[in-house]
Amino acid sequence: KSWTSNTRKNFAVALLLTTVGLLMGFLAAYLDIAVEWLSDLKFGVCNMAVFLNWATCCEGTSSLDTCSTFSRWSTTLQLQNIFSGWSATVDFLLYCVISLIYTCIGAILVITLAPYAAGSGIPEVKAILNGVVMKGFLSSLTFIVKMLGVSLAVAAGLSAGKEGPYVHLGCCLCALLCSFFPLIRHDGRLYRELLACASAAGVAVAFGAPVGGVLFSLEEVSTYFSSQVLWHAFYCAFVAAMTLKVMNPYYNGKTVIFEIPSNLPWNWFEIVFFALTGAVGGILGTVFIRTNLLWMKLKEKHGFFKRHPIGEILLVTLGTCVLFYFSDFLSGSNSEILTSLFNECSDDTQELDDIAKRNEAYLCSIKNSKYVALALLVGTFLKLFTAVITFGIKLPTGIFIPSLTVGGLCGRLIGVLVKGAVTKYPKFALFRECLLSSSCVSPAIYAVTGAAAMLGGVTRVSVSLVVIMMELTNGLHYLLPIMIAVLVSKWVGDVLHVDSIYELYIKIKRYPYLRSNPPNENSRTGWISVRSIMHTPVVCITSNSFRLSDLERLITEYKYWNFPIITSFEENAIVGSVSREAIAFVLGLCHRDNLASRDPRVHFSPPSHLSNLHEAYSILNTNSSSLEDFALELGSIMDFFTLTIPDNTPVVKVIEAFQNTGARVGWLLNGGKLSGVISKKDIIQFMDTMSS
Amino acid sequence: KSWTSNTRKNFAVALLLTTVGLLMGFLAAYLDIAVEWLSDLKFGVCNMAVFLNWATCCEGTSSLDTCSTFSRWSTTLQLQNIFSGWSATVDFLLYCVISLIYTCIGAILVITLAPYAAGSGIPEVKAILNGVVMKGFLSSLTFIVKMLGVSLAVAAGLSAGKEGPYVHLGCCLCALLCSFFPLIRHDGRLYRELLACASAAGVAVAFGAPVGGVLFSLEEVSTYFSSQVLWHAFYCAFVAAMTLKVMNPYYNGKTVIFEIPSNLPWNWFEIVFFALTGAVGGILGTVFIRTNLLWMKLKEKHGFFKRHPIGEILLVTLGTCVLFYFSDFLSGSNSEILTSLFNECSDDTQELDDIAKRNEAYLCSIKNSKYVALALLVGTFLKLFTAVITFGIKLPTGIFIPSLTVGGLCGRLIGVLVKGAVTKYPKFALFRECLLSSSCVSPAIYAVTGAAAMLGGVTRVSVSLVVIMMELTNGLHYLLPIMIAVLVSKWVGDVLHVDSIYELYIKIKRYPYLRSNPPNENSRTGWISVRSIMHTPVVCITSNSFRLSDLERLITEYKYWNFPIITSFEENAIVGSVSREAIAFVLGLCHRDNLASRDPRVHFSPPSHLSNLHEAYSILNTNSSSLEDFALELGSIMDFFTLTIPDNTPVVKVIEAFQNTGARVGWLLNGGKLSGVISKKDIIQFMDTMSS
Asked: What is the interface size between A and B, counted as CB pairs within 8 Å?
C-alpha cells in the first residue's frame, strides 16, 4: 500500500510539473498577445476586427499613418470634424485617458479583490519558500487579478514589466494545481520545492531562458535547493519555454519581446569600458534601491498616497504619459526601446518597422552624436525616475524590464561616448587595436552589458543573470563582456552594502524571513545567552495525560503556532512538538465523527509505520476498543524533530542553528528540562536590533 | 578586533579563489601541452627540438609522412637499415613499448606514493563535501602524482580522460592553499564550500564551460550549496576559464580539445530520433555502469589483478594499443575521434589536418554507408569495452571523455542510419520535411546528442550537462536536441534504477556518504524504534568535574570521534559535544605550555564572545589565577548544536533528521536523559540493509 502511495506521489509530481509548464507557456503567450493588443488600443483600433493588434492589422505597411486598416481614435470616432486641426491633441488626450482607465481598473481590482497581487511578488515568494505562511497570496483570485492587472499596467505604458510577476503567477498556478493532490499539499517541503520549480518556469517564459530560470530560482528565490529540485525545476522550465516557443506569440519564432543581435565584434581594450558599464550599472542599481526606499518613506510620512493609492497610480500614469508621449525615441514600450538600444547602427534599415526605424535614425545620427548622448543621459534619468515612483504602487509591476531599460540607456550612453573618444583620438595607446578593424566599438554591446549590470545591481543576482543574458543573446559571444560587467556590478553593490530590492521589500513588509548569510559576529550583543530573550514559561502538552477537551481549550486560549509535547509536568522532558494547525485538523475530524463529546484521552507516541494524515484517522477509529473509555493515538501528527538547544547558548550560535536547520521554533533546555521557547520571529527581531 | 578578523577572512577567501582559478588555468594549459607532446612522442620525435609536439614541429605540412622535421622512431634511431622492410612493425612495437612505459611509470607512482591519486577522484570529493574525512586525499603528494599520472595515462592512449581528474586536482590545490590560511582551514563549512568552488573551476577548465562547471559542482559534487557559494564558485570558475583562454594551449583560441561546429540545420521530425539517441545513451550508460561493476566483482573474486595491479594496467594498455593502432579512424586520441564525429561531412576538407581528413573521408564515404555504420557499431562496442576495463585501474583516469566518445560513436551510428532511411524512403510521411530542405539529417548532431546522453547516463547529471554542452557548442542552436536527449537519458536511467558511477564507487569503497534523497519508506524495518540500533552506554564528559588527565585517558581509551558533554552523571542531561580532534589539540597545547603536569580541572561553559581557536588558548592562560588550583575553560572547543532525538523515534525519521541537519552523530534521549548514540555510519549501514 505504501509502495503505491510513493509511486502515486511521484506520478503526481510529474503530472503537476508538466501541467505547470504547459500552462505557464500558454499564460505567457496570452499575456504577450493581450499586452500588445491593449497597448495598440491606446492609439486606435483595427477596422477589420477589433481584436487585431497593429502589427497583424497592418501587415505589409511600415507606418501607422500609411496603414489604412488601422485608424487612430480621432478618425474612428470621427472627431476630426468637430476638433479640426486638433486631432493630434485629441489623440494624445484619448491616449492618456485610456491609460488612466487601464491603471484605474487594475488598481480597483487589486485593492478591492486581491491586495497581494500588487508588486512583483518575488519578495513574497522568497518569504514563502523560506517557510513563511501567507494566506491568500497564492489563491485563485490573486492569480486572476494579477494576470489582468499586469496586462493593464504594462499596456498603460508604465515603467513596469510583466516578467517579474510571472514568478508569482507560476507559483499561484502551482498552488492551485497542488490543491488537487492532497498527498503533495500536505507535504510542506515538497510543496515548497514545487513552488521553486514554478518560479523557474516563470523566469524561463519571461526571458525564453530555461536554464537561466532554474538558476534564478536557485540563486534568488529559494532558500533550500537540492539536486532533485534542480532536475524538477529544469524539466518544468523546459516544458514552459518550449510551449511558449510553439505558441509563437510574436509570429517570428522568438519568445522574448526584445531582440539582441549576435556576433557584433568587440576588442580587448573595451573590457575596461565594459567594466565601467558594470560599475555604473551597480551604482545605478544602488541609486534605484535607495531612492525607492526614500520615496516609500516619504509616502509613509505624508500619508496622502497611503490614503489614496488610486490617486497615486493615476498621477504616476499621467506623469508617465506626459513625459514620454512626445519624446522621440522613448515613446515606445520598454521592449521597443530595448530592441533599438540593443541594435547596432547599420545602413540597412529596410526590415525595421516604423518606431524602430525612427529610433534607429535617432540613435545612429553620427553628426549629432552629442545630442544622442544628451538624449540618452536624459532618458536614463527619466526612466530611472519613473521606475522609482512606479515600483511600489498597488499594481502588479515587475522590475526586470525597467531595470534593463535604464541600464541599457546608460550603457549605450557610455558606448556612444567611447565611440566618440575612439573617433576623436584614434592614436591613443589604448585604442590602437581599433586601427586594424574597420568598424570599432559597437554601442549596442555596451547597452547589453549596461542592462545586465543594472539588473544585477537591483536584484543582486550574478550567475543566473549571466546565464539569462547568454540565453537572450543566443550564444557565448558576449559572455566575457557580460561576465565582467556583472562581476563589477556585484562588487560595487557589495562595497556599497546594499540588499537586493526583494530583500528590502521583505524587510519593509516585515515578513519573518531568515537570511542564510551568517550574522555579524562582531557585535557583542550577539554573545548574550539566549536565556535572556527566550519566552518562558512554555505552554506544554503531556504525552499521555491530556484529554481532547484540553487540546481544544489550549488552542482557543493560546495563539501559539507550536506546542511542545513533554513526558510529564514533573519530568518536563520534551519528546516532540505539534502544530496548532494539526490539532485543529484532528479536532475537526473528531467533531465530525462524534468523538469529541466522549472526551477521550489523547496519546502522543511515535508512529510504528508510514505516517500520513489518512492513517492518523484510521488509528483514531481502531483505538476505540471500549465505548466509554478509549484513547486517541495522535502520534502521527506529532513532529519528532524539534530544535533543542541548551538555554545558556549565545544567541549568535542559536541563529546559526536556525539557519542550518530551517526550524521555525527552538525549544530551550536547562539540564534536559524544557525551560523556554524561541521562535524564528524572535530571532529575526534580534538580528535586526543587532545590525542597527 | 573581531571586525578585522571577519574582513581578513573575506580577503583570504577572495585571494584564495583568485589563486585557485589562476593556477587551475595554468595547470590545464600545462596538462594540455604535456599530453599532446607525450602522445606525439609515441610516434616519433621532432628533429628541431625534442620538446616540440607534432603540430608545432610540422607547422604547414598536413601529414606525418610529408613532414621532414618530425621523424618516426624507426628513422630517428636508424633502425630501418637493420629491420629493412619492417619499419612499420618496428614503429608499432615502439609505440606499444612507449605506451607501456608511460602507464608503468604512472602505476608505480600511484601505487607507491599516492594510492588516492587513482581513479577520477570525483567520488572521493563528493564524499569529502558530504562531511567524510579522508586523510591524504588532498595532499601535495597526491596532487603531484595525479598530475603526472593523468598526463601519462592519457598520453598512453588509454580510454581515459583528464577532465574528471581536474576536479580532484582543483580540490588538492585549494586544500594546499587553505593550509596557508588557518582562519579558513579551521572553519569546516567554509573549507568545504571552497572545495566546491575548486571543483567548479576544475570542470570549467575541462570543458571551457564556467557556468557548466558551477552547475556540475552544485548538481553532482556538492551536498550543500548556498547562493553565496554559487557566487564564489562562479568567480573561481570564471577566472580559471579565462586564464586557460589567455594561455591558449592549442594556439587556436579554443579551450577544449575537440570542436563542435555550430549551426548545422535540423528538422522537427528529427526530435524523435534525438530522443532515440537519448534512450540509447541512457541504456549504454547503464550498461557501462553495470558491466564495470561486474568486472570489479570478477577481479575481486579471482584476485589476480588485485595482487598485480601493475600487471592489469600493462595488459589494459597493451590491449588498447593493439585494438586501436591499426584501426582506420579509432587510432587517434579520444579528442580527435570526437572532433571527427562532431564534424559534418562537407566537400571542403582543405582546412583539416591529416588524421581528421582521413577520418572524414572514412565517415563521409556515401557509397559505403553500410560499412560506415558497421565501423561505428564496432567502434562503439570496442570503446565501451576498453572504457569498462580501464575505469577502475590504479591510474588517474577520468570517465567524461570515454563516455562522450562511446556516446558520440553510437549517436553518429543512429544519425547515419536515419540519413540512410531518409535517402531511401524520401516520401515517408515523417520525412516529408526533408523534401523542402537541400541537405537533411546531419549525423554530426546525433553524435553530439548521443555523447551528451551517454555522459548523462553514466554520471546521472542533467542540468549541468545541458549547460556544458551549450557552452561547448557555443550557442543555443542545439539546445532543444540536447535537452531532449538528456531528458530521455535521465528518464531511462531512472526507470532502470541506477546510481551514477560516482555513487557506485562511493558505495563500493564504503565511504560514509549520506545521500540526500529520502529513504525508501515502504520497508517496515524502517519503522522500528532507533533504540534498537543505538549504541549504549555512552562515554560522557561532565561539564565541570573532569580533569585534564581524565580527558587524556578518555581519548586514549576510547576511539570515538565525538564525546557528549553532560551536566552531571546523575542528571545526565546533554549540553553539547566535543570532538576527539579538539580534545587532542587542546591537550597538545597544554603539554607545550607545561600545564598538563598540574592536571587542572576543565570547564565546558558557553563562550561569551566570538570564539576561534586562538581565543581558546587565551582563556586557558588567563584562567590560571592561583598556581596550584586552577581550571581551564574549554567552552570554545565545544559544539553546542548536537542533534538530539527521543530514542523511541522510528529510524526513517532519524534518517531524515541526519539528512536535513548534516550532523555526523545523533544523541538519543529518554525522558531528557542521554540514553544512547547513533552515528552517520550506523545510519548508512542501516539504510543499506533496508534497501537490500
From this structure: 169
Which residue type does A448 have?
Answer: V
Report angle CA B560, B566, B567 to the nearest 5 degrees: 160
Rounded distance, CA B647 to CA B645, Å?
6
Which chain B residue shows the shortest CA-CA distance from A516? B226
pLDDT exceeds cutoff 60 at B582: yes
Record: contact A608-B527, CB cut-off 8 A: yes
Average per-residue pLDDT for chain A: 82
pLDDT of residue B65: 66
Can you name the CATH fold of A2-27+87-247?
Clc chloride channel (1.10.3080)
Per-residue b or e along A200-225, where b marks 16 or more CB atoms closer than 10 Å to that residue's CB = bbbbbbbbbbbbbbbbbbbbbbbbbb
CB contact under 8 A, A610 and B575: no
Query: What amino acid is encoded at A600 in this protein?
Result: P
Domain boundaries, chain B: 2-247, 268-508, 524-691
Residue type, A642: T
Distance from CA of B480 to the nearest CA of A (A): 9
Q: Max CA-CA distance within chain B?
A: 101
Measured CA to CA in angstroms, residue A186 lies from A307, B136, B473 at distances of 39, 46, 43
SS3 A541: strand
> Which letter, b or e, does each residue of A359-388 get, where b requires 16 or more Cβ atoms within 10 Å of its Cβ?
bbebbbeeeebeebbebbeebbebbbbbbb
Nearest to A672 among B219, B529, B573 (CB): B573
Task: Write out the three cell numbers for A151.
Answer: 496586462
Tell me whether strands A631-633 and A601-603 are parallel, antiparallel or unpaired.
Answer: parallel
Query: For A388-415, how does the pLDDT look when each residue is reduced to its tens digit (9 = 90+)?
Result: 999 988 999 999 999 999 999 999 999 9
Q: Among 1.10.3080.10, 1.10.3720.10, 3.30.460.10, 1.20.1630.10, name the CATH number for the domain at B268-508.
A: 1.10.3080.10
B591 has pLDDT over 70 = yes
Contact indicator for B207, B451 with CB cutoff of 8 Å:
no
Which residue among A3, A231, A571 sits closest to B462, beta carbon to beta carbon? A231
Q: How far does Cα A192 stand from its chain's mean position?
A: 15
Domain range B2-247, its CATH number among 2.40.30.170, 1.10.3080.10, 3.30.56.10, 3.30.505.50: 1.10.3080.10
| Domain A268-508 matches domain A524-691 at the CATH topology level | no
Cα–Cα distance measured from residue B316 to residue B300, given in angstroms and rounded to the nearest whole number: 17
Spell out the residues 6+ positions from residue B625 whose beta carbon is closer than 8 angstroms to its own.
none
Q: Which fold has domain A524-691?
A: CBS-domain (3.10.580)
Three-state DSSP at B656 gives: helix
In chain A, the largest separation of any two C-alpha atoms, in whole Å, equals 101
- For B539-570, the pLDDT digits (tens) are 888 887 888 888 888 888 888 888 888 888 88
Binned at pLDDT 50, 70 and 90, residue B110 comes out as: very high
Indicate the burial class of A484 (C-beta count within 10 angstroms; 0-12, 13-18, 19 or more). Answer: buried
- Beta-bridge partners for A667: A644, A677
* Out of A136-150, A195-209, B460-474, least confident range: B460-474
Backbone angles phi, psi at B679, to 5 degrees: -105, 165
Contact call for residues A665 and A577 (beta carbons, < 8 A) = yes
pLDDT at B517: 63
Q: Nearest to residue B241, comparing CAs of B465, B37, B28, B390?
A: B28
The amino acid occupying position A360 is E
Cα–Cα distance between A132 and A512 in angstroms, integer?
Answer: 6
Q: Which residues of A touch B211 (CB under 8 A)?
A: 463, 466-467, 470
CB contact under 8 A, A524 and B609: yes
